[in-house]
Amino acid sequence: MSNKTDSNVYTVLFAIGMVVVVGALLAFVASSLRPKIDENKRIEKQQNILYAMGVNENDESSAVFVADNVVGEEFKKYITKQLVITEGTNAVEDEQAYLIDIKKEQSNAKEGIERRLPLFVGEKDGNTFYVAPIRGKGLWDAVWAYVAMDNNMVVQGAYFDHKGETAGLGANIKERFFMDDFIGEHLKDASGNFAGIAISKSNGDPLNEEKTDNEVDAIAGATITGDGVAAMIKSELKLYVPYFKTLNN
Amino acid sequence: MGLLSKKDAKLILDPLADDNPITIQVLGICSALAITAQLKASIVMTISVIFVLGLGNVVISLIRNIIPSKIRIIVQLTVVAALVIIVDQVLKAFSYQLSKELGAFIGLIITNCIIMGRFEAFALGNGPWKSFLDGVGNALGYGIILIIVGFFRELLGSGTLLGFKVLGDPIAKTGLYATGYENNGFMLLAPMALIVVGIIIWVQRSRNKALIEDH
């Protein structure tokens, strides 16, 4: 290294120059790609909601969404109402409900601001589905899900996803063998109280034939992710219980 | 190897075996543990590291004469971080599904010590073309080990390869499972990655005694 690059003035100037150049470059990349990324997120959200209510292109073993280019139309076709629920039972229709950021609502609730609960009502083959978006914590980072229920809070389908769970272990919550276990599973116990669905390591029911036990089989090596999923289902879907009660009156 | 001189070819080929970053230089072990439970994740990580290390080596090599030596590590870190963020953003915009699957790994690249190691040991003292070859070579050498470890961990731990059930269905008891075979769940845990890497190191050194270090 020459003497020139060793001087303090040069070092400081270089650092400032580098920050400006790199900062400008990243800001440019981020802002020019922003619209495209937002569009991708909207498509994904609509695909997830449709997936949970059974509108998907699943083959034998893998989870496949409806194609990106038709998801907008399919969403309009199957989702008949988008509701925003406040004060437990007060449901208002809102075309933009799918844009509600669950994470933001959760932190609002912590600060005492009333939480808005989005709920998507879909019709398929004469059945009505109520799809709730929920969010919780896994081992490393956030986990979230879209759960489709009937009016008795029996799960009709679910889509799970995560930000950074371990590949091959916790990340398997988005695999069919895990998600499909939830289909038909009851969220209420035998006496009709909300119980949630536990992720159990000891239920002795790997094929999940018992649908009323409020349990599904856990993933080996993913205890904390599984506990996080169970806690999310319990605390988040519980918020919808008052609304579901009004449906059956 | 008509395109490359003998010396240049050595830059690519040496890290594949006799100067492998994982088994000989013992760098990048952390990510070799973290992401090799599945073969697919290993392959994806390999491709990402080839890109970041190849390009990063070129960038560092181009500015090697104007980097103040006092803050060279910070400059290197900034270059890796910027490249990784660009890769992440471009993937999010143009290949959203892929970017979701890579999510955690892309960020992990920043902390991969092979990258800083090659910047410091090679790119700071060599021209861009040589640095590029060195970067690609080392990333490939890293990737080979990742893929070997990923192959065995997924096969023995989950009975699948790239998600396909190659050994039969463990729940319906078909294929190999009909004979009483069981997946070894231990293979999915991080310690087994270390043991598999250890076995590779053992095999490699017993085939080539020159690699055994003196004590």
From TrEMBL, chain A:
Topology versus the membrane: Single-pass membrane protein
Location of this chain's protein in the cell: Cell membrane
Pfam families given in the database record: FMN_bind (PF04205)
GO cellular component term of the entry, any: plasma membrane
Residue ranges of the TM segments: 12-33
Record domain FMN-binding: where: 138-240
Catalytic activity: a ubiquinone + n Na(+)(in) + NADH + H(+) = a ubiquinol + n Na(+)(out) + NAD(+)
Keyword annotations from UniProtKB, A to Z: Cell inner membrane, Cell membrane, Flavoprotein, FMN, Ion transport, Membrane, NAD, Phosphoprotein, Sodium, Sodium transport, Translocase, Transmembrane, Transmembrane helix, Transport, Ubiquinone
Modified residues (FMN phosphoryl threonine): T223
GO molecular function, one term: FMN binding
One of the protein's GO biological processes: sodium ion transport
Secretion signal, residue range per the UniProt entry: none
Chief location of this protein within or outside the cell: membrane
Enzyme Commission designation: 7.2.1.1
Cofactor(s) required, per the database record: FMN
InterPro entries to which the protein is assigned, alphabetical: FMN-bd, NqrC
Family: Belongs to the NqrC family.
Assembly mode: Composed of six subunits; NqrA, NqrB, NqrC, NqrD, NqrE and NqrF.
Function: NQR complex catalyzes the reduction of ubiquinone-1 to ubiquinol by two successive reactions, coupled with the transport of Na(+) ions from the cytoplasm to the periplasm. NqrA to NqrE are probably involved in the second step, the conversion of ubisemiquinone to ubiquinol.
Protein name: Na(+)-translocating NADH-quinone reductase subunit C
Organism: Seonamhaeicola maritimus
Gene that encodes it: nqrC
From TrEMBL, chain B:
EC number of the protein: 7.2.1.1
Localization annotation: Cell membrane; Endomembrane system
The entry's keywords: Cell inner membrane, Cell membrane, Ion transport, Membrane, NAD, Sodium, Sodium transport, Translocase, Transmembrane, Transmembrane helix, Transport, Ubiquinone
Catalyzed chemical reaction(s): a ubiquinone + n Na(+)(in) + NADH + H(+) = a ubiquinol + n Na(+)(out) + NAD(+)
Ranges annotated as spanning the membrane: 43-63, 75-96, 102-119, 131-152, 185-203
Membrane topology recorded in Swiss-Prot or TrEMBL: Multi-pass membrane protein
Enzyme category, top tier: translocase
Cellular component terms per the entry's GO annotation: endomembrane system; plasma membrane
InterPro entries linked: NqrD (IPR011292), NqrDE/RnfAE (IPR003667)
Biological process annotations from GO: sodium ion transport
Recorded GO MF terms: oxidoreductase activity, acting on NAD(P)H, quinone or similar compound as acceptor
First-listed, main subcellular location of the protein, grouped into a coarse class: membrane
Tagged with keyword Translocase: yes
Family: Belongs to the NqrDE/RnfAE family.
Known function: NQR complex catalyzes the reduction of ubiquinone-1 to ubiquinol by two successive reactions, coupled with the transport of Na(+) ions from the cytoplasm to the periplasm. NqrA to NqrE are probably involved in the second step, the conversion of ubisemiquinone to ubiquinol.
HAMAP family for this protein: NqrD (MF_00428)
Complexes and interactors: Composed of six subunits; NqrA, NqrB, NqrC, NqrD, NqrE and NqrF.
Name listed for the protein in its UniProt record: Na(+)-translocating NADH-quinone reductase subunit D
